[in-house]
């Protein structure tokens, strides 16, 4: 995951983050939160003109392999968060994209923007 903050017209700061193979929203949000905290600590969050988040090096779920260092507990926890993400997706399909969220729904000017469509192309309802 790349997290880029544009702080002036021609000045951008980019941090890279990594996470284990995942398909749950929480893994992505945890990585993004860690990168954001590093930006704040580095003093890069002044005069922001843009923010860009890019997921890269993606692969299909069937291409993944088991992690040698997985424990029974980590596998169980990951499965629980994947179930939560699946449930959230089902609720959003049935009741609309704003029916349920893991993160804050309030931001500067009360606008958070679109939801991130992990593992798929966003639908118009995602915005």
How would you characterize the overall build of this protein?
This is DNA polymerase Y-family little finger domain-containing protein. It comes from Phyllobacterium ifriqiyense. The chain has about 130 residues and is of the alpha+beta class. The chain has one domain. It contains two helices and three strands, in the order E-E-H-E-H. Strands 2-1-3 form a three-stranded antiparallel β-sheet, covered by helices on one side. A hairpin with a 2-residue loop joins strand 1 (about 1-10) and strand 2. It starts with a strand and ends in a 32-residue tail after the last helix.
Task: Provide a concise account of the structure shown.
With 127 residues, the chain is α+β, with helices and mostly antiparallel strands. It has one domain (2-57, 70-107). It has helices at 25-41, 72-95; strands at residues 2-8, 11-16, 50-54.
């Amino acid at each position: 995951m790349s997290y880029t903050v544009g702080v002036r017209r021609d000045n951008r700061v980019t941090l890279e983050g990594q996470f284990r193979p995942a398909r749950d929203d929480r893994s992505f949000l945890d990585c993004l939160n860690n990168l954001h905290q590093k930006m704040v600590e580095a003093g890069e969050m002044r005069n922001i003109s843009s923010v860009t988040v890019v997921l890269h090096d993606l692969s299909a779920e069937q291409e993944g392999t088991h992690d040698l260092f997985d424990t029974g507990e980590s596998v169980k926890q990951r499965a629980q968060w994947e179930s939560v993400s699946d449930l959230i997706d089902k609720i959003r399909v049935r009741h609309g994209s704003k029916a349920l969220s893991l993160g804050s729904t309030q931001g500067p000017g009360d606008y958070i923007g679109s939801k991130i469509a992990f593992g798929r192309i966003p639908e118009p309802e995602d915005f």
